[in-house]
User: Fold this.
Amino acid sequence: MKNVIIRTEGLSKEYLLGEVKVNALIDASFEVLEGEFVVILGPSGSGKSTLLNIIGGMDTASKGKVFLRDKEITAMNDSQLTDYRKNNVGFVFQFYNLMSNLTAEENIELSTEISQNPLDVDEVLKNVGLFERRTHFPSQLSGGEQQRISIARAIAKNPDLILCDEPTGALDYITGITVLKVLRELNKKMNKTVIVITHNSAIAGMADRVIRLGSGRISENYLNEKAISPEEVVW
Amino acid sequence: MATKGQYIAILVIITLGILIFIAMSMAAINLSTTLDTYYEETNFADFFVSADSVPETVVKSIEDINGVRSVEGRIKSNVPFISEKINERVNVELISSSPEDKINKVFIVDGTYIKNKYKEVMVFSQFAAARGILPGDEITIQVNGTPVKLIVSALVANPEYIYLMESSEALMTDASKYGVVYVSEELAQSLLGMNGNYNELVIDYDESLIPDSDNDTIIQNVLDDIEKKVDNYGIQRIYHRKDQLSNVMISQEIKQLKNMSSSLPMVFLLVAGIILTMMLNRMIKKDRGIIGLFKAIGYSNAEIIMHYTKYALFAGLIGGALGGIGGLASAGGMTQMYLLYFNIPMLKADFNIIYVFIAMILASVICTVAGLIGTKGILHIFPAEAMKAENPKKGKRILLERIPQVWKRLSFSWKLVFKNIFRSKKRTALVISGVIFTYGMILFTLSMPAVMDDVMNKYFTDYLKMDYSVSFKRPIDKSAIYDFKVMGKIDLIEGKAEIPVEISNGNLKKTISLLALDKNTAFYGFKDKNDIPIKIPEKGLILTENLANILKVKAGDQVRLKPYSGGNAVYDQVVYVVPQSLGIGIYTNIGSLDNTFMGKNLITGVNIKSKDLGLPRELYKAKNISTVSSSNDIRAMYDESLALIIASIGFMLAFSGILGFAIVYNVTSVNIGERETEFSTLRVLGFSNKEIFRLILKENNVITVIGILVGIPVGTAMLSYATLAFSTENYSINMVPTNGSIISSAIVTILFVLLAQAATYKKIKKLDFLEALKTRI
Assistant:
């Protein structure tokens, strides 16, 4: 029986864009179980990034609550959120955001230096298949390789959650599949809960759970009984 | 505006730079114009002669020299001024004045010219102010032991005493203890028994015959011609106005002011320009997507460049205007400040608005050039590329990584620090340069009191060991020393002979007093360059280093000495060359003097060691006493003036600190701006604001340490430059930083840098990392 790792209750976010009030997220309530590979699907402006940012402790909610197990994230102050991001969350960006003056392994060490219980850097590099490229700088790596290093950096912290914001958005199809494979392997081998946000509905095929967002609201939330492997994903 | 703080910092630097430029330039112009006007109105003499006694006929014969327009004789003597305070020693120069005087005319500040020739006196205004003397007051002077009461008819000024100096050694003179009084020629003749002769001549020369003031050959020829005329009348000194003490002081001051007014502001403007370039560079990078869009729409490079360059131009215009107005407002005050030290009764303060426009143009040009350099990156932005995500910068190993013995020992955070420092070499170089300059300026500033104090201590304790130095009107036999011993409590007394000579080495000449002392003198502590004590040689000369430099001689060389007393020239050997901070000198063994210079066993003065404060009053009762100088009085005057020196040092320190602060603040701000995405990623990873700030702090601290270490030789070089710039024939202050000043300068620099860094912490806190990470084009 899997435990609930993320629970949201009536989560809403509104902000002002100039003089216009925007409801980015409206009354979102759902649960994610430990070890699930979740895809949050939706077009641009659907609120998926906002949702991910709140779960990741990078943004605050206007209403509602978010829990990581029994810890209420939405009640945390700035310092607590920093600790939350440090210890509980690994983030993978669309555009990798690696430090250009650090090598691949140094970029990963950036995470492990501040973590309480990090994984071994070399092991993580092997897991993403880039141990031989560990002394290369980001400018010497392809987009896919950079994204894999970004994933390695996220996983090296040994977090509870891996949050991925359009991880294949800047990549071509083949590279994108490679990255998805890495994410899926980490999810299965290390039992890490992975939440991926994307507009690419093809990726939903490999998810354990799919949450669909539209205009800030959750329109669908279902378990994918027939999850396909990343190699079978086609777009 | 994200760059509001930086823009304000740039404006401050430009405003300060222009303010200094205007204030100093205007002060220099005002002083120069005022001086020229004053000299013209009072007909400041071109040549001066001091002698024992020159008949009027000889005085008039000098007018036969080609180019001499007129000559006037006068009588001058240093006499005691009787103060109400018993032990207060006050001296005045008693100078004769005539209403017919056309050269070195007195300038009446208050009151009227002498009417009663035998009962009235005119008093130098600075001396009068210091002593609270007003027209109508009665003063008493002592001439040849006899008190003389006189009524003050006027307070006056004179171009010879723009800077009041009792002697060439007295850097600073206490205006309440030394002054000048003018009496009628008839009274002076009567008091001093000159029998119609004069002991001072002032000469007006046709300056068009000296094409420029540095035409030494023509000046020397005139001096030689004058000397021939007065050779037999006990010449003490003949000199051109360029060697007149007061004129030397004010001319040098104006020259230094002019130099500083152009060099110092350029430093500020250059710094502002560099920071503007960096800021615009950063803006271009941040706006590359928008720039790409504008280019795609059809805007030209020139149109886009001009848009951004306007930021820089605006800074130049605003800073130039503010600085110009501030400078004009300060110019009067700065000029007035100089008039605290220089007695010029007619200040010509011009406020020429044209300087504000010059300032605005200067600042605008520099800022526009900076802007154009900073925005040239726009030329390389292609629309399609601009709207894509930026390629990651190339990474490479730094030098330190190639030294594994060192690199392996560093913690990860320190590795990060060094990698970041050497990632942007230009930025790092700029911060280091800023710290070097700031540290150098602070070291220079903080070294000055210690250097001045050291000079004074060395001069008045190690070198000059007398309490009083006494000069006679006429030489006497050395056996007369014993008569002095009854005048007061004298611990030690030695005779000396001061003989005016012309010393030369080929064409290089100098008029100076040869000081003959007991070879075992207890009153002078001569030391060589290595600080080893030396004695006056049995035969031969000791020259001070500044004199040796003027004559281009060294130990072992021969020099020619021609006494003004009329004897033949002789050659003598320079045995030692000694460093001496104050004054210029030539010394010899009194026992080796023969009749060439002066009769054997004669002395012209004595040096005295005595704690008796009433001794000078007793000495002046003797008829043959000309002057009594107290070393302690001069030293005390310096100590009082130290407060003023410290005030000006505080001013310079503030400027250095502001510049250093501005550089570090701006570069750190640009640093933060350029690394927004990086810092945002670190925030997402779980770094706190404080942890990120500590990273930046470590980077800047390493740079600061490097800057300080390099700043030590830079500051030392600045002090060496100052030694050259501030040294004259009479003063040679060897500025070497002390360990204390090196350390205290480092502390002050670090404080300013930390302050600048603390000010940037707000930028880290304000960082919207979510927003920064969203922006990818």
The radius of gyration of chain B is 33 Å. Residues 468-610 of chain B form one domain.
